[in-house]
Amino acid sequence: MRTSVTELRVLRMALLAALGFDLAACADDSSSDDEGSSGSGPETSGEGESAESESGSTGSDAESGSAESDSESSSTDSADTETDSTDTGVDPYTCEDPQPILQAGTELPSGFVTCADGFVHRVEAVECAAPQPADDETCDGVVDAICQTGDDCTAQGYAACKQDMWGQCTCQYGCASDDDCDAGEICACAGVFDDQPSCIPADCTADAECGQGLCGLSKYEGCCDNSYHLACAAPDEACHTNADCGAGSCLEDVPEPIVDYQCSESEGAWTCGPPGWCGCDCGRPLMIDGQPRVAGPSRRADASWMAVGIEPELRELDASLRAQLAARWAEIGRFEHASVASFARFAAQLQALGAPPALLRETAAAMADEVEHAKLAFALAAAYAGAPVGPGRLDLRGAGVSARAQLVAAQIVDALIVEACVGETLAALEALEAARWAEDPSVRAILTRIADDELRHARLGWRALAWLLERGGDQLRTAASRTFTLTMAKMRAEPEAPPAERASSLLAHGHLDAALRQQVRARGLAEVVAPAARAALSPSTKIRAASLA
User: Fold this and answer.
1) Cα–Cα distance between 298 and 487 in angstroms, integer?
2) Do residues 394 and 504 share a domain?
């Protein structure tokens, strides 16, 4: 992580200043935030664990070490118990009625089999009968596309030009055998999980490498698409299929919506957890019925949603990397576009509560910022894709504002904590970290601007929260404390994401891989969000009236 301790402290102090604290006092207390976040801040009146105690559990290295030590001690005791007894609490897994998965359009085995319960594992490596994916006819003749046919794609063999989920024509590559893939990958033939062969990450290549276990196919449902990898699954894993998992909260802020948890492998263990798309966000998401809502992608004939003068360096980028960058920036643009509606709803909610002029002015300015963020992101997406990109129509059904002020107050506090106090704060930190890695000056400048704007939006959220809590009394403060606790606990408990393809290349172009993103979020929660939450939840926190005029 390249963001420095000093930059984290500056970010924290900016939020405390937004809450009305004197900056000189913040400077005097800054070291105590780092060293004593296990309970030195103001107590909260939340139900269960407070935001203060939650932050204390993972605040400093010493505290996290203590927590880990307790966890390790507990797991060691558990391991000792298992050594003395053959009962692990989990019935050993057996693949019932295994059926071979055939290569698409053939009677040839793919090397994978599926069990009666749906668990898929690889028994052997085989040659793929159809290693060459077919070109998409819709790409032929498309002007300024990355490719029109597979002949335009030269990075690997078995190339095809296909339309991706964003409507862009990009290079995709097949394979005939594991030898066609990079080290640490295997070739999954057409029919295993897609209608074309592809190389996927693999910690094992066949069941024989897994002892008494099986070389299982793990599926991860991410923001943009599904990803797959192979990993050994021991007979006593916590799960083998989604049917072994129950349901739970998708998002970290509220108990709803409830989604079916999924079984996947991470860090050597098969466990249940929410699907990866539950955590899809960029800045302030538009939440409707507990789920983020964005417009669909659109290949536009005009350039109205693209900022002018954005020219990233393209000369040394292969077609595959350009396609990934185009997809990622298009996704960011869609979330920034939806943020405009989120702030519009926020403004209406504030007006329903009689908010002071400053909060409304800052909200209007934030809407304008998000329009520019979306245009910058779509401009980068278009530059990488070689074609205009923009948002489609945004479905706003269910996004209305309640007329009951008391209900609105509770909803605003809940949304502020998730979308602004936590979401915007971490978005600012993630953009700052991405800017530190970006090598392209154009991309670095855009990320730096986004980081500055997101910090200002976070300050707005914290100021609005303090104003609401000052008016709402202990009941609202208690609810806020509980939301902070649940939000931070859920984010800290997120499972490790699978390894990203070409992570270093994407990082050089301003996109954090999942592991670094989780590291940034953990630091941000412990060193920025938690201290600010303790300050905001303190009954003594008062927003200066002059700053709200």
Assistant:
1) 33
2) yes
| Whole-number Å distance between alpha carbons of 337 and 298 | 13
Spatial separation of the C-alpha atoms in residues 376 and 258, rounded to whole Å: 34
Cα distance between residue 301 and residue 149, in whole Å: 22
Q: How many CA atoms lie less than 13 Å away from 12 in the CB half-sphere?
A: 28
Q: Are residues 472 and 448 in the same domain?
A: yes
Kindly state whether residue 516 falls inside one of the protein's structural domains.
yes
Q: What is the pTM (predicted TM-score) of this model?
A: 0.52
Ramachandran angles phi, psi of 292, nearest 5°: -70, 135
> Is 463 domain-assigned?
yes
pLDDT tens, 381-423?
888 888 887 887 777 666 665 444 444 566 678 888 988 899 8
Residue 418 in tokens: 């998730």
Give pLDDT tens digits for 74-120: 333 433 333 343 444 557 899 999 999 999 999 999 999 999 999 99
380 with 238, same domain: the answer is no
Interior angle at CA 145, CA 139 and CA 149, nearest 5? 45
The CA distance from 283 to 244, in Å, is: 34
Whether residue 216 lies inside any domain: the answer is yes
